[in-house]
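**Fold in tokens:**
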Amino acid sequence: MRSSTRKGLNIALVALLGVDLGCWLGDDGTGESSTSASEASTATTWTTRPDTETGTGTGTDTSGDSTGHETTGDGTTAAPALCTSSESCPEQLCRAARCEAGVCAYDPLAAGEVVDDQLGDCRQTQCDGDGGGEVVAADDPPEDTPGDCKKAACEAGEIVYIAADDDLPDDGLECTTDSCSAGEPDFTPKPTGTFCGPMGAHYCHDDAICRRCKQLDDPCEDPGPEPHETQQLAYDLGTIADADSAGDFLCGTVAGADDVDWYVYEGDDTVFGAVDPTRVIDTKGSARLCVYAECIKGTTSVSCGGLTPDTAPLGQKGCCGAGKVAPKLECSGLDDAAMIWIRVDQAQQECLPYDLDYHF
């Protein structure tokens, strides 16, 4: 019974079987109940005083009188509880304590008064006006969980969940349509190529991820500028300052081991700026990214750290690696302005689309 778990509802419980709420179990004289357990009502009635220390029923008639004396099962009277105030008296459901001449006394609460109610369990405890009471069904559902396509409700004193298709979920992905279907969350990918991201400038892919480069129906399609297969034909990206916010991204494809993509830009070393010529490539395969530099003034020094040192066809020093390539560039003098070349290639005989970030 739910009532045995309530604070202070520490009493002997009587389950009502197939009769009106508030009645006792019948006995046909054979020692068996006159109704079956399957006909039990959800209401629970008590007439005994709760044991406030253990939270369980005492099993004896200790209903007590208005002066706080307790009558035990053998007819004797137990000593009343001593007190200094009504707050120091043991709690009794459906009875208000008062301290009278240092002894606890109790007065029945009004019939229908709700006591010790646990929110969100679809039940409540009501007093009967004689110091007893019962646990009855109530329209007291728990709080709803937003976005689970369900709504909590009460049905005959039990918590139930019904479909609520307006309680929309959110998977945090811009490239899915979030909805409810028969009380269950449903996340449907948007069509490939749907615009997404800042200002709608990016594209949804078939894995429901918003990416800057459009998903290609043909993996060998090259969305980037052509031709730019040699350093001399490198695609000019213009001038980029060394502010962290400067730079951009581009999309391209290398079609096998014989295809190479080259790019070039001028890096402008501004006052108070820090030169950090970083390139980051994102692919679904294994591509190699190389970065070469030549100072506009003075001599050029390039350090590769854990990257692989390399020399461009036109003689510039640089570094190669996979993923992020950020060589350390130093020019003699105070100005670190430089020309930067980027090379993308791969060793496999397959077409490999890529997404490339670059800045100075």
The CA atoms of residues 240 and 267 lie 5 Å apart. Residues 2-137 form one domain.
